[in-house]
Amino acid sequence: MRPGRLALWIAVLAAVAVATRFADPRLVHVLPVAINLALAAVFAWTLRPESVPMVSRFARRERGQLEPELVGYTRTLTVVWVVFFLAMAAVAATLSLAGWTVAWLAFALFGNYALVAALLVGEYLVRRRRFAHLRHAAPAEMWRHACAELRGD
């Protein structure tokens, strides 16, 4: 997905957030579900045969040309992120529909982000071990590359 389309998705989600502020307060429960589904869609869209997987795009920003052993790894990792975002949407929806407001709030404000961070750190550690013979950027540098790719810089 082009960064402009990602920006459009984010703008739509922001509009939903503003609209829910002035509407039924329960509608705010839709926001974490919608954000996770939008991210899943963005990552999944890049898995089409004629496209470059999202994580491969991030890695190319860091490395230039990808080593052959990283091509399959980054594609698989893109799939992992799609599944992750779908799971986060399902958790948020389930907590909301079950009426577990305190649990939903904890998940929406902290849990979802903590799990994103855990996946990022866990993947980084796995990659450093699995591909120890390759150079790896520091997490902050990787984050800058990912943000630049999403912005379309």
> How does the overall form come out from the CA principal axes?
elongated
> What's the count of strands?
0
Rg measurement, Å: 17 Å
Please mark out the parts with pLDDT under 50 across 5 or more consecutive residues, or reply none. Answer: none
> Roughly what fraction of the amino acids lie in strands?
under 5%
The succession of helices and strands, N to C, reads HHHHHH
SS-based class: mainly alpha
* Overall mean confidence score, pLDDT: 86
Q: How far apart are the termini?
A: 14 Å
Number of domains: 1
Tally the helices. Answer: 6
Largest sheet: none
Classify the helix fraction into a percent range: over 70%
Please write out the topology:
Layout: H1 3-21, H2 30-45, H3 54-63, H4 68-97, H5 101-130, H6 139-151
Helix pairs in contact: 1-2, 2-4, 3-4, 3-6, 4-5
Give a written overview of the molecule.
The two termini are 14 Å apart. 77% of the residues lie in helices and 0% in strands. It is mostly helical and 153 residues long. It has helices spanning 3-21, 30-45, 54-63, 68-97, 101-130, 139-151. It has one domain (3-151).
Keywords:
153 residues, 77% helix, 6 helices, 0% strand, elongated, mainly alpha
